[in-house]
Amino acid sequence: MIEIVLNLWHNDSTMGIFTNFLKPDSDKLDAAISPYTFPDSPMAIWANGFNSGQTFVTRQEAMSVPAVSRARGIICGSIGSIRLETRRALDGSKIESASIIRNPDPRMPRSVVYAWTAEDILFNGVAYWQVMSLDEATGRPASAQWISAKRIIQDLDVTGTIVLGYQLDNEKLPASGVGSLIQFTGMDEGALNRGGRTIRTAVELEKAVYRFAQEPTPAVVLKSTLPLPKERVTALLDAWRQARQTRGTAFLNDSIDMTSVGFNSAELQLTEARQYLASEIARLMGIPEWYLGANAGGSMTYSNVTSERRALLDFSLRPIISSIEDRLSMDDVTVRGQYVSFDLDDFLRGNPLERAEIYSKLIPLGVMTVDEVRRDEEMVD
Fold first, then answer.
1. Residue 164: CB partners within 8 Å, gap ≥ 6?
2. Any bridge partners for residue 130, and if so which?
3. Which of 286, 309, 339, 363 has the fewest CB atoms below 10 angstroms from its CB?
């Protein structure tokens, strides 16, 4: 009898059964504390006193640039719209997801929580959830709230590489249980850190465009051939400004000359500069240029939507999606023998004609049934 129990215990297919009936050791796991921090991560740079020479920008500054805002909306909005599912590692079959996977924060829509989590990974290279409650049956987190990465401070060891704990708004957090953090670690230090100089350039360009919109004509210098007192000069400038607000044509007598200084919009090449920076930001964010309107010569047709969406998934969404999937699949969140993944079928599905061609081949082979096709196409009464 003992031998049979031991054999079952080592069988992967029954591992989940035992962990469901026995209280897991999730409260002993220290996975909520990241084992290390990256050399170029925000925490490491702050700990070194900003000696890296990088240019930093805030989220507010970055989002003031239309290309950054659109890239964020496409990447994070797409991830937030894709649902997650839980599967058995043994055979890949779907099972009901835990509440923290279905809707992490009961007070907020699921899509919002995942979108803001994706944004922190994209911008800062790290994202955090704070555990709000535990599941009584498994001892694992049952709900969690998204916490902005800028509110978290990592307590590091003397080497500045090992994470000892966390502070939220300067208050120390527990290492496990309610109030502890689930850290989602990105695959780089985040766009605001590695691309700060590019985004800063775009911010300054937007300021230049705004200034030119306020004063669309080059600066004007009025020169008098006669000596004028200070009061007369002030009155002349006020009259000139007031007249330009009502008409574009000016009249000057023999004693006043006008000279233009500065550059016009064509000479400043503001449009070309914005187009160039949009392309650079597309490269920075890892998103195809046409998504940001940066590729003026490119075009998109319905026939290539599927391939373009596949490119978006592979090069833009996949790193962030993997960070979220892998973290939620760890033992302190998900029961051993199970894993969490995004359901990408609906995101990558082709147009109706393409799907019909696939079904016509799968049904005769017995891979799918007509009822399954009707269900996938939401044709069930």
1. 33, 155, 156, 157
2. 145, 181
3. 363
DSSP string, 240-256: HHHHHTT-S-----TTE
- Find tokens 């359901």 and name the residue: 343
Between these two residues, 67 and 305, which has the higher pLDDT value?
Answer: 67
* Cβ–Cβ < 8 Å for 102, 55: no
pTM across the whole model = 0.71
Q: Which amino acid is at 100?
A: I
> Residue 182: enclosing H or E segment and its boundaries?
strand 181-185
Per-residue pLDDT band at 219 (split at 50, 70, 90)? low
Judge contact between 138 and 18, C-beta under 8 A. no
Per-position b or e across 259-288, b if 16+ CB within 10 A of its CB: eeeeeeeeeeebeeebbebbbbbbebbbbb
Q: Specify the 3-state DSSP secondary structure of 167.
A: strand
| Contact yes or no for 32/332 (Cβ under 8 A) | yes
Domain residues of the chain, as ranges?
18-215+267-350, 219-261, 352-381
